[in-house]
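DM from R.C. (forwarded with permission)

"hey, sorry to bug you on a friday — could you get me a structure for this? deadline for the figure draft is monday and I only need the backbone to look sensible"
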Amino acid sequence: MTIPGFDERRLELIDGVVCEKPMPTWGHGRIAGRIFAALDPHGVAGVEPRAMIPGTADRDDSSVVPDVAFYLSDRPPDSDWMRTPPDIAIEVLSPGQSRREMRAKVDIYRSFGVRSVWVVDPEWGLVDVYEGAGRRTVDRSQVLTPPVVPALRLPVRDILGEAG
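My reply, with the result:
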C-alpha cells in the first residue's frame, strides 16, 4: 500500500553515499526497546538519534541513525543532532540487511570515537561487540557485560525475547 505524498524512506549518509535504512519490524523495535530500557538507568539512552559525523582523511562525511545510542554523561541537547560520539551505539540487523553493510557502519562509528558498538543479529541469536581493536561475539546463552557500563549485566536472551 502506498500513501500518496507520504515518503517513509529513512535515509543515511554512509561514507558520502546515500543509503536507505530498512524500516524496522515489530520485533526489531522491541529488541531496541529492551536495550534502551536496560541502558537508560545507567546514563542516557536515545532511540534512533541522527549522528552527524564529519569525514576524515580516509572517509567522507556520514550521517547514520543507530537504533540505540547511549551516553554515560554529556549527552547532546534534546534539540540537537548527535555530534559527539556516544559511549555505545547499537544496531539491530533488519531482514535483508547484510553483515557487510553493517560492518561499514561499525567502521564509521569507531572512527567517530564510539567506545563500544553492538550489532544484534536476531536471526542467529548473536551480538557482535566491537571495543578497542577487537570484536567478540556473545550468544543467546551468555550475558553482555560491557566495560563501558561495568554495573550492567544483560542476558542476550532477554534482549532477543520472542524474536530470538
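R.C.: lifesaver. The chain has a mean pLDDT of 85.
me: no worries. The chain has one domain: 25-163.
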